[in-house]
Amino acid sequence: MYLLIPAAGMGKRMGSNQNKLLLKLKEKPLLSWTLKAANEAKSIKWIGIIGQSYDFPLFTDIIAHINPSKPVKLIQGGDTRQQSVYNGLQALPPTAEKVLIHDGARCLATPDLFNRCAETLLHSQALIAAIPVKDTIKVVNSNLIVKDTPPRENLWAAQTPQGFDVKLLKECHQKGLNLGWEVTDDAALLEKCGFPVQIVNGEETNLKVTTPIDLTIAEFILK
C-alpha cells in the first residue's frame, strides 16, 4: 500500500511561525511520530511526505533518524492541502493503484489503524477512518442562532487515514480543480462526484494536533 502524508501546513493556530509538524512532542518532532507509525505498519510499502521545500532539510534529518525500512520520498506541496494532495498523487509511482492519505498532524495514529484501513481498501474504492460523535452538534446561522440539531447517531467525526483508488481520486481532484471546488478532505471530493465512501472505525486517541491544548493532550496520551 502507498501512503501520502500532507505535511505542508504552518502552525498559525498553534501560535507558531514554523511548520507545526516540526514542533516537539516528548522531545521528538510531530512528524517523527507519524512517520514512525507508518513505517511500523506492515501494509505500507512506500511513503510520500508532501511539504514545502524550505522544510525538506529538517524532514530529511527526521527521516534519517528513523531510518525507515521502506522508501520515503519528499514531494513539493501547494498553497492548500487540496493542492498538496494533488501534487502528491502526481508523484506516486506508476504502479500505485490504491493510496492512503494521512495528515501528518495526526501523530498518534497506530500501525494497526494503518493496517486496518489498508486491508479494507483492498475491497473498496474509498474509505475514511472516523469515530462516532459524542457531543450534540448544533447547526447555526451567521448570527450564531441554532437552526437545527441533527441526530447524533448519524454523525461521525472524520479522521485520517483516508483511502482511495488512485485513478478515481485523480479524476475527482481534476474535476474539483476544473470546477473550482474547495474541500477540507479528499473524501469530500468523492462525495461531490457521487461516489460512496466507507467508514472504518478510527481511534479515540487519533487526534489532530492543531492548538497548544492538543499538544498537551497528546503528551498526556503518550504518558
Characterization of this structure:
- This protein is an alpha/beta fold and 223 residues long.
- The chain is built from seven helices and eleven strands.
- Helix 1 crosses helix 2 and helix 3 crosses helix 5.
- The longest helix is centred in the C-terminal third of the chain and has 14 residues.
- It is globular.
Chain-wise SSE layout:
Elements: E1 2-6, E2 24-25, E3 28-29, H1 30-40, E4 46-51, H2 56-66, E5 72-76, H3 81-90, E6 98-101, H4 111-121, E7 126-132, E8 139-140, E9 146-148, E10 156-165, H5 166-179, H6 186-192, E11 198-201, H7 212-222
Parallel strand pairs: 1-4, 1-6, 4-5, 7-11
Antiparallel strand pairs: 2-3, 6-10, 7-10, 8-9
Helix pairs in contact: 1-2, 3-5
Strand content: 15-25%
Number of helices: 7
Cα distance spanning the termini: 31 Å
How many strands? 11
Strand order of the largest sheet: 5-4-1-6-10-7-11
Radius of gyration (CA) equals: 17 Å
Helix and strand content put the structural class at: alpha/beta
- Note poorly predicted spans: none
Q: What is the H/E string?
A: EEEHEHEHEHEEEEHHEH
- Please bin the fraction of helical residues: 25-40%
Main pleated sheet: 7 strands, mixed
Query: Mean pLDDT score, rounded?
Result: 94
